[in-house]
Amino acid sequence: MDLKRTIREKIATSIMLVFTGLSCVLLFVMIFALYFRSRPILFIKPIQDLLFGTVWAPSRGEFGFFPFIIGTLWVTLVSVAIAVPLCLLSSIYLSEYAGARIREWTKTPIDLLAGLPSVVYGVWGLLVVVPVIKDYIAPLFGSFSTGYCVLAAGIVLAIMIFPVIIHISVEVMGYVPREIREASLALGATRWQTVKYVIIRKALPGIIAGFMLGLSRAFGETMAVLMVAGNVPRIPKSVFQPVYTLPALIANNYGEMLSIPLYDSALLLASFILLLVVLIFNIISRLFLSRIERSIR
Amino acid sequence: MDFRKIEENFFKVLMIFSTLIIFASLFWILIIVAIKGIPAMNLAMITQAPKGGFYLGKEGGILNAIIGSLLVASGSTLLALILSLPIVLYINVYLTKKSRLAMFTRFSLDVLWGIPSIVYGAFGFSIMLFFGLRASLLGGIITVALLIIPIMSRAMDEVMQMVPIELISASYSLGANRLETALKVVARQALPGVLTAVLIAFGRGIGDAASVIFTAGYTDSISFSLFRPVATLPLAIFYQLGTPFPEVQARAHASSLILTIIIMLISIASRYLTKKFKSFVVK
């Protein structure tokens, strides 16, 4: 009887250890697999031609990723520029000014916002953001736009990354010890001065980590961007011009990629680039956050 | 008037304004989805598969995609649960808080969480080519499972870390070994959290499009076979919007309303279940 328990324990332990080990190596397997599949094109074309080439014509064997890389950066930066000030102010409000009841109440909408599928964001973008830009915002700045543009993608993405940024910012501001806050108030500082000189300074690494996680989320977002960005492989000159991002490129072309030589390899190279960029941002921000977590324990 | 007071009030107004914008955007999205979706909604949408000429505006519904999405999401949630429960129990019961392996596992799960779903799609597609699989329900289930394992395990991990050490010690002192403690004490104590994690992962699985576009494919017929392509709701919405016909686009709006309702139901269910199962937890 006791032997049976011991054997069961032994077997279970090794199974659990194997699964845990697998979860640790999955990342490396992904990196290796995507690299392995993108090798054919890396052998034939020099990497700088791929990264900085501006002509995208797979049927003629030309694979210049530059417009897509710049396009992805444009869209990401616009979304971060919109999301950062709004999220920062809102997180400060939720963490420092709002009462416990408001904070509790706001959790549900933020969770819902995080849970909405990206296609739904895309549908909203098509129905609201695209026409508004076409009819009102672009003419306001004296330019013509179809509405499918950098700005549309940026606005939709900004809303998608609100929950990520707010969640982390509110959490790290909550880590700031109460005594420090009270000391600042006792010295006669106003609430805003306490926020400005104490809280923000203390929570800055965590807030930056939150921004970076939001940024990497925006960088890799596919469907919503695919639906509203216009998808023209040219470097945009203003926010009202259409744009084609790396994730949209991958998702849009999987159908034809097996019929043109090197096309599948090029698309997997695109996902490899995407993985590396997102990985760097994620690792840095997670290191920031785990250091903060350790310092409060 | 005092400058500091003006500054204080100025920023306070700004903060409330930003918070309102953020919450208004959620309601704006929900309201638009409802307004555009309700007129195009009819019974055929949820009881029929697409018939001939569906994408030209003829009859049919998206039952194929609803069933397909439920199959992909439940299959992958089950697979992810089978794979992540041992991981989470291992790092919480078998390893100590300061263990290197536990810390590294948490770290890599966090990083995996941040990887975009299109990358999972490309990775899943590469694996499928390697094993000679075509776009199929099985491919979709495996890929989505990989996508939701980090979400599920970290959510379960959060609650298991809260299980008091005294409870675990009590279990050991009664003669239970680590496996028994893990399954009968820690897993049960964390049950509400496990349920929430499962539902969050299910919601993510049902709503994700970029990972299934390569791996699950698409079909207009209702299919239950593991080795045949299946339709999914997000892709159904995407393809219907891609047609130039207003009737088909209207159906896409109805489909996104259906998807949104499913997501809301999952969210409500998770809140309700968490509350209900709290009563089994030792405080």
Structural overview:
The complex is a heterodimer of chains A (297) and B (283). In chain A, helix 4 (100-115) crosses helix 6. Chain A is built from 11 helices and 2 strands, in the order H-H-E-E-H-H-H-H-H-H-H-H-H. The longest helix of chain A has 43 residues, at 2-44. In chain A, strand 1 (56-57) and strand 2 (62-63) form a beta hairpin. Chain A starts with a helix and ends with a helix. Chain A has helices at 2-44, 47-52, 66-97, 100-115, 118-140, 150-175, 178-186, 191-220, 223-228, 246-252, 263-296, and strands at 56-57, 62-63. Chain B folds into 2 domains: 3-40; 54-280, MetI-like (MetI-like fold, Orthogonal Bundle), CATH 1.10.3720. Chain B has helices at 3-40, 43-47, 63-94, 100-113, 117-131, 137-160, 165-173, 178-189, 191-207, 212-215, 233-241, 246-277. Classes of the chains: A mainly alpha (297), B mainly alpha (283). Chains A and B meet through helix 1, helix 3, helix 4, helix 5 and helix 6 of A and helix 1, helix 3, helix 4, helix 5 and helix 6 of B.
Give the helix tally of chain A: 11
Classify the helix fraction of chain B into a percent range: over 70%
**Second-tier CATH architecture of the largest domain in chain B:** Orthogonal Bundle
What does the average pLDDT of chain B come to? 88
Radius of gyration of chain B: 23 Å
Named CATH topology of the largest domain in chain B: MetI-like fold
Strand fraction band of chain A? under 5%
Low-confidence stretches of chain A: none
Return the structural class of chain A. Answer: mainly alpha
Derived structural class of chain B: mainly alpha
Fraction of residues in H or I helices of chain A: over 70%
* CATH fold assignment of the largest domain in chain A: MetI-like fold
In CATH, the architecture of the largest domain in chain A is: Orthogonal Bundle
- Overall geometry of chain A comes to globular
The CATH first-level class of the largest domain in chain A comes to Mainly Alpha
Total number of domains of chain B: 2
- Largest interface (C-beta under 8 Å): A-B, 83 and 83 residues
What is the top-level CATH class of the largest domain in chain B? Mainly Alpha
Low-confidence stretches of chain B: none
Strand order of the largest sheet of chain A: 1-2
